[in-house]
Amino acid sequence: MTTETKTAVQPALLFMPDISGFTEFVSSTEITHAQSIIQEVLEILVESNQINMEVGEIEGDAIFFYRLGKPPNMNELLKQVQTMFTKFHQHLQRYDKQRICPCEACSSAAQLKLKIIAHFGEVAGYEVKSHRKLFGKDVIVLHRLLKNGLNKKEYALLTDPLMNGAETSTQLPEWFCPEEAKEYYDVGEVSFKVSDLTKLKEQLPEAQIEEMNSASKAKIIFTEEGILHAPAQKVFGALFDLMQRPKWMEGILRIEMVTKDIINRIGTMHRCIVGKNNPIIVTEYASIGEGTAELVEMDKRGIAGCRFKVESLSEDETKLTIDMLVKKNPLVLAFFNLFMKKKTQRKIIRSIENLKEFCKPSFVSTQMTVNNLN
Known about the structure:
Layout: E1 4-20, H1 22-28, H2 31-47, E2 54-58, E3 63-68, H3 74-98, H4 104-108, E4 113-128, E5 131-135, H5 137-144, E6 155-159, H6 160-165, E7 179-185, E8 188-196, H7 198-202, E9 218-228, H8 232-240, E10 254-257, E11 269-273, E12 280-288, E13 292-299, E14 304-314, E15 317-327, H9 330-339, H10 341-358
Helix pairs in contact: 1-2
């Protein structure tokens, strides 16, 4: 039997960041990657919570936060808006710079927008197990405000009950330029102040990306090639999708992610679990052109790695080239050539043969699409 505990009516800050364009985004693009990108940015928003709000619900493309008690100081609240907005867009900037996948979802990610709705009112609630569910007129007001007639893509909307109840200790930030507005809903007239966030976006510092260049200090020890009877996008998809590796790469038992990236990108780190010694592998470089693609991975110390090159020969035939890279160090080169070269070469040859089978139509293809490889 479920235990339910009701709580008394209490004052509360109600706060909801909403990712604009999410519905259009997932309906017109590759769904798996779109969902992964949204998951990442929702996590960024949760991690950006600096004023000790509770997460009430994750509502698809929005997060319902609340904080019981008196309203926050207005400067504190606007700093929270700024932090959330800044981290949201910096993450999307980094993603766009680091992305490998050229599918529509990944290439469109940087265009996502954020609006933030904040209200102050009274709520009641009940708890089922340890989960608190809030309800009341002011919860309805917050959700109604998501649908409004504002001709703005990104903004902070603060209702009059919140603006009137919050204290202001210092001058408000320059980017906050509130305009008065009101909407009429089934709950009545709702008056609020709204500030366009375009100015704040223009002030965002450019996201910094760590340069990856250990492959430039490596030498090609051997090269293996194969012709695969499969479209180039399917071949590159199998290379790019790390979770597919154990299905065709010889000797790999499983992939263990080191970074928490959901989609492989520049800087993503993983381990190929093959035995006791499993070095961290870094995705260093990727390039996609007209009918060609290239992917470079090196171990974190820059000792060894692979360059994968894909070339479309026809709609259903692809050339794959794999270069084995080893650091240009006399001792490292001598050790590899004496003890590892033949074994590694055999594994790569078998991996290419495995990939030929994996990419046949009888196998389920990767969900990623690379539209401009053919």
